[in-house]
Amino acid sequence: MEAIFNLIHNELQKGNDLELVSIVDSSGSAPRGSGAHMLIGAQGYLGGTIGGGSIEYKSISIAGELLANKVSELKHFNLLPNDDLGMLCGGKATVLYTFLNHEDTVTKDVFQQIVAKSDQHVEAWLLTKLVDETEATLGFYSEDTQFIGIDADMAYLTIKPNCWTADGATYFVEPISQSDKVYIYGAGHVAEALVPVLHNLNFYTVVLDDRTNLLTREHFATADELKLVDFSKDDLAQKLTAQDYGLVMTRSHEADYQMEVQLLNTPAFYLGIIGSRYKISKHARRLMDEEGFTKEEVARLHWPIGLDINAETPAEIAISIAGELIKERATQYQEVVDQKA
């Protein structure tokens, strides 16, 4: 997502009009869910995807025509063999085609803010309002900017995209940046394999270790932050919020244990520990006997970390961990949506 918004910002600065293609609603077995994007310019496809296949092929053509006419549109597709696109998915998709005028100052300001807030890793949302089925205006919200271009009920600003109608207009709002971070305690082989995978999944990663030879950009080119720490002295979990993830994989069982203690005293959403079942059993007993944690509190720790796919190598373990984080993030997102409903 960040890449396509950077592309939009750059193209607008160059003086190019664009058509942004977005999935705003889907059901059944649609190829992509709400929030998927594709960008079309005067020369055709520029980047992104809304799932491939017939719906994407058709949307490239539709977006090209809309761009030539400088208009926006909302279209509904049935993804069935005998319907609109002859697809076998069996679902439905609503696609918003938004014309982006490079001369519109609000549009340019919105995407400038999106790029800035993504870099700062703070909560921010993109809003779109479609009137008369052809005229779209854009808006933006973050805590420091407040609403730009479009106002909306704060209840719609969730960590999942929202689409609704009001007063004859269609609104679409989606998060473009969130504040959750993945704190990885330990810069060994598993962490080195894990960080690039999480980067491609839009997780913000912070790697912490006491080994200067490992905590380098050569080993962690895609990490968002690298922090040199002292596991025996520093309080390394104090910044974790209820949206954050803490992953423990230091070089020392004792350092792992101390991090477990620290992390259990935070509201962090997800806590994962790497290690053998013997180590886990021993640490669980210590946490209850020596630290006074209850069985329910210790159960917050996901150990051994990762999905059970019989992973053995660092690369395989990284995939199993990433898979579990995807699952947990989706659960978190759905819980927030359910609470807002």
Q: What features would you describe in this structure?
A:
This protein is α/β, with parallel strands linked by helices and 341 residues long. Helix content is 33%, strand content 27%. The strands form 3 sheets. The chain has a 6-stranded parallel beta sheet, sandwiched between helices. The protein has a 5-stranded antiparallel beta sheet with strand order 3-2-1-5-4, sandwiched between helices. Helix 1 runs antiparallel to helix 3 and helix 4 crosses helix 8 (314-340). The longest helix is centred in the C-terminal third of the chain and has 27 residues, at 314-340. 38% of the residues are buried. The model is unreliable at 85-89 (pLDDT under 50). It comes from Agrilactobacillus yilanensis. Residues 182-325 form the XdhC Rossmann domain. Residues 13-77 form the XdhC- CoxI domain. InterPro entries: MoCofactor_Util/Proc (IPR052698), XdhC_CoxI (IPR003777), XdhC_Rossmann_dom (IPR027051).
Record keyword descriptors for this entry.
single chain, 341 residues, alpha/beta, Rossmann fold, 6-stranded parallel sheet, 5-stranded antiparallel sheet, 16 strands, elongated
Please specify the SSE layout and strand pairing.
Layout (H helix, E strand, L loop, with lengths): L1 H12 L4 E10 L9 E5 L2 E5 L4 H17 L3 E7 L11 E10 L4 H16 L3 E8 L3 E8 L3 E3 L13 E5 L2 E9 L4 E4 L3 H12 L4 E5 L15 E4 L16 E4 L4 H12 L5 E4 L3 H13 L5 H4 L2 E2 L11 H27 L1
Parallel strand pairs: 11-12, 11-14, 12-13, 14-15, 15-16
Antiparallel strand pairs: 1-2, 1-5, 2-3, 4-5, 6-7, 6-10, 7-8, 9-10
Organism: Agrilactobacillus yilanensis
InterPro entries: MoCofactor_Util/Proc (IPR052698), XdhC_CoxI (IPR003777), XdhC_Rossmann_dom (IPR027051)
Protein name: XdhC family protein
